[in-house]
Fold this sequence. Notes:
Number of helices: 10
Largest sheet: 7 strands, mixed
Bound molecules: S-adenosylmethionine
Strand content: 15-25%
Amino acid sequence: MTSLSTAPLAPLLDRMFAEAEAPTPPQVRAALAQLTPEERSRLSASTDEADYRTFYGLARDAYLAVSRDTARLLYMLVRACGARSVVEFGTSFGVSTLHLAAGLRDNGGGQVITTEFEPSKATRARENFAAGGLADLIDLREGDALQTLARDLPGQIDLVLLDGAKSLYPAVLALLEEHLRPGALIIADNADRSPEYLDRVRSATSGYTSVPFAGDVELSMRTG
Ligand SMILES: C[S@@+](CC[C@H](N)C(=O)[O-])C[C@H]1O[C@@H](n2cnc3c(N)ncnc32)[C@H](O)[C@@H]1O
C-alpha cells in the first residue's frame, strides 16, 4: 500500500483527474477564443512577463495537469531516488504536487517547494493539499517563479519538476542549478516547447545526461 493508493489521497486524485480530463470549461474556451492561434502561441512562448501572465490568466480555471502516467512516474522517481527535497515550477491545482509529496511521505518525509502566480489556483491547491493530508510537506510560494525560486532554497535539491511557462525553463533551471546534487533528476513536461532548454540539457558539456520519452517529457540527470 502507498499513499497514492489509500485514502484520503486516492479518492481525491480520482476526482481531480476526472475534472482535469473533462472537456475544457466553457469560460476557459471563451477566454482563449479571444486569441488567434498565432497570438496564443506567441503569448505562451514569450519570455515577457506581461505575455505569459496574460496567457495563464486566461487559462486560470483550467487544470493543465500532467497526465496520469507522468504523475505516477513522478511518484516513482521521488521514491526511487530517495528524495527528501523537491522543487516544482507550476502548481496549478496541485495534481503533480500531490504526487511529489506522496513520494516524500512514503520516503519518510521531506519538502516540496512549489510555485504558482495565479491566486485562485494557489487557493484551490492549498485546499487540495489539506484534503490530501499532505499540506505539512508542501511550501507553496505565490508569485512569479523568477522571484519565488530566487531565494530560500535548500542546500541540496534531489528532484525538480518544470511545468510552468515553457519559455522560462532555462531561467528557472539556472536559479536551481547550484543546489542540484550530483544525480539530481529534472523532469520537464512539454519540453518540446522549449528548444533552448533542450539545447541546454542535451549539450555534451552541460553537466546533464538527458533523454526524451513519452512524447513530451524530458528526463535529465545532473552529472556533476
Ligand atoms: C501546466 S500548469 C501546471 C500543472 C501542474 N504541474 C499539474 O500537473 O497539476 C502551469 C501552471 O504554472 C503557472 N505558471 C506559469 N508560469 C509561471 C511563473 N512564471 N511563475 C509561477 N507560476 C507560473 C500557471 O499559472 C499554471 O497554473
